[in-house]
Write a structure and sequence with these properties.
single chain, 436 residues, mainly alpha, Growth Hormone, Chain: A, 15 helices, globular
Length: 436
């Protein structure tokens, strides 16, 4: 009975937390959960598929390089489309378009350099349309007081799906071929069909949200403040991390540890640990501790990268993926919270948040493209092993600058508030004097 009471109380507390979001924000959170079911296919298994087909590091890197080069173009085109179409319809179109392209790549008969460039560019364009609308909906449907909680919900749903989906997909791809039911290639065909079906369902769910499409007056930000330049610096450095984290774990595991089932298991174990830590932090940590959490996450990424560099074996690889998964998600959640709050402060004259979202995406992809080009350089001039082993360590050192930039934004955020209070006090006094 006591256990039942505790469960009821826990459920009641969670429901109250969820109700902190607006009604439309709650519907959007459910749509995000559906997207996170599909996400492991994009993030993990498409790179595993390319590696299985070619066992060529350059093919995998080329696909991701093409993707990141085209992402900003998708964001720009979406900005123009928002002047004529609703954000919900574009979100739906982006979701279906990107899933369909990945499915076509899986069904494509020969994985060549031309093919991966073509599909990478198309995937980047569709992803730009999808994520620009996802980011815009997040900014519009959340506010500073519940943004961290929304991020925690997003991450929690990612965690739940990252636990079960990689294990299920890994088992689907390996057990079928081991038992002679179907080949691994046919297993990927099944995954592609499921992915498209879920994309249609997720996209249709977003249409239940009642939201007016935000005004997009300008797409390109001409002059940014000092704080905004700090946000750009943070975003570019995060690009260094995300550029290689999209494909490096899959290549390392498949090259040195095992098949897709091993990859899925390692991702799932890491997701369990990171989910517990991240959700606890998001619910209990005040926003004033964001810089501290950023510092902890970056130091953890350095430890993970050093472990991989100096212990390049199964144990070192597992520790690298586990620590990186946890630290990376904390870093993204905390920096995202800082930057979204900054957008609210910067965008005071007109409703043009999309301009800031597009600006960040441009900078983010500069970092991503740079990281992949460094990876290719190390592969060509040293060896693929050297690139896989040491690239994360080099980039984790560069990430230390994020701590300084985030601190600058947080400190300066308090100054305008104090100035406003002084100004209001002054106006009140002058108004009183003028009455006499």
């Amino acid at each position: 009975m006591n256990r039942v009471g505790l469960l009821k109380r826990a459920f009641s507390n969670e429901r109250k937390q969820f109700q902190r979001l607006s009604k439309q924000g709650q519907k959007f959170a459910l749509s995000i959960f559906l997207y996170n079911i599909i996400h492991p296919i994009f993030a993990i298994f498409i790179n595993a598929f390319l590696w299985r087909q070619t066992e060529d590091v350059m093919i995998v890197a080329l696909f991701n390089l093409s993707l990141f080069c085209m992402l900003p173009v998708g964001f720009y085109i979406n900005g123009q489309l928002l002047k004529h179409f609703s954000v919900k319809n574009l979100y739906f179109a982006g979701a279906v378009f990107r899933s369909s392209l990945i499915a076509l790549l899986i069904f494509y008969p020969a994985v060549t350099q031309f093919a991966v460039i073509f599909f990478g560019l198309g995937y980047g364009l569709s992803s730009g349309i999808f994520f620009s609308n996802k980011n815009l909906l997040t900014v519009e449907l959340t506010k500073s007081s519940n943004r961290m909680y929304f991020s925690s919900l997003d991450f929690l749903s990612q965690t739940v799906n990252n636990i079960f989906i990689p294990m299920a997909l890994g088992a689907l791809l390996v057990l079928g071929s081991n038992n002679g039911l179907y080949s691994a290639q046919q297993g990927y065909y099944i995954v592609a069909i499921l992915m498209i079906s879920l994309s249609f369902y997720m996209g249709s769910a977003i249409k239940k949200i009642d939201i007016k499409t935000p005004t997009v007056a300008n797409i390109v930000l001409q002059n940014g403040s000092h704080q905004w330049n700090c946000a750009r610096g943070i975003t570019a450095l995060l690009g260094l991390l995300t550029g290689i984290s999209m494909f490096l774990p899959a290549i390392i595991v498949l090259s040195y540890v095992g098949k897709e089932d091993t990859l899925g298991l390692m991702q799932s174990v890491a997701a369990i640990i990171s989910g517990i830590i991240m959700y606890t932090i998001a619910r209990s940590i005040n926003t004033k501790y964001r810089v501290g959490m950023i510092t902890v996450s970056i130091m953890s990424l350095f430890i993970a990268s050093a472990t991989l560099a100096f212990s390049f074996n199964a144990t070192g690889i597992f520790l690298f993926i586990a620590i990186m998964t946890i630290a990376q998600q904390i870093l993204f959640a905390e920096t995202n919270s800082v930057i979204l709050d900054l957008i609210d402060r910067e965008n005071t004259d007109q409703d043009n948040k999309y301009m800031y979202i597009f600006d960040l995406e441009m900078v983010l992809n500069v970092g991503r493209v740079t990281s992949i080009m460094f990876f290719v350089f190390y592969t060509k001039n040293f060896s693929p092993d050297f690139a896989m082993q040491y690239t994360p360590l080099f980039f984790s050192v560069a990430l230390i600058a994020i701590i300084i930039l985030a601190k600058t934004i947080e400190v300066r955020a308090e100054v305008p508030l104090r100035h406003t209070e002084l100004a209001e006090s002054y106006v009140t006094k002058q108004s009183t004097i003028n009455k006499y």
